[in-house]
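>> received
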Amino acid sequence: MSKLNEKKVSKSLHWTTVASEKALLAVIGVLTLVAVAIDIVGLWEKKAIQLADLFLFFIYAEIIGMIGAFYASSRIPVTLPIIIAITALCRVLVAQGKEIDSLTLIAAAGAIFLLAGAAYLMSLKDKISLQKKMLRKQEEDSMNDPV
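>> returned
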C-alpha cells in the first residue's frame, strides 16, 4: 500500500478512535455518577461518615473533572490521573488506620512521594510548553506584522 493510501485509510478511520474515546468516557462518567449514588445511599443507611468516605467522594469528583477537562480540551491532562492515584493511596492509608503494617505504610508513602514528584514535573512541562507556544505565537505575529 502506498504512503498516500495509508494516510487516507488512517485519516478515514480516525473518527472511530475519537468516537470510541468519547463514548467510553461518557460511560465512565455515567458509571461514576451511579457509584456516587450507591455510596450516598450506603452512607445514609449507615448514618456515619468517615474520612475514607470523603476521600472516595473526592476521587469521584476528580474523575468527573477529568472527563470534563477532556470534553473541554479534547485531551486529558496527565496530572489528573496522578492526583487521583495519590488520593486513592491516601484513602487506603486512612481506611486502614492504626492497623496498617509499617512496611505497607512506607511503601504507600514512597508511592505518594513519587507520584507527587511526577505531578510536579508534569506541571512544569505543561508550563514550559505553554510558554513555548506563546513565544511561537509572538514570533509569528511579529513576522506577519508589517513594520
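>> The first helix runs from residue 3 to 46.
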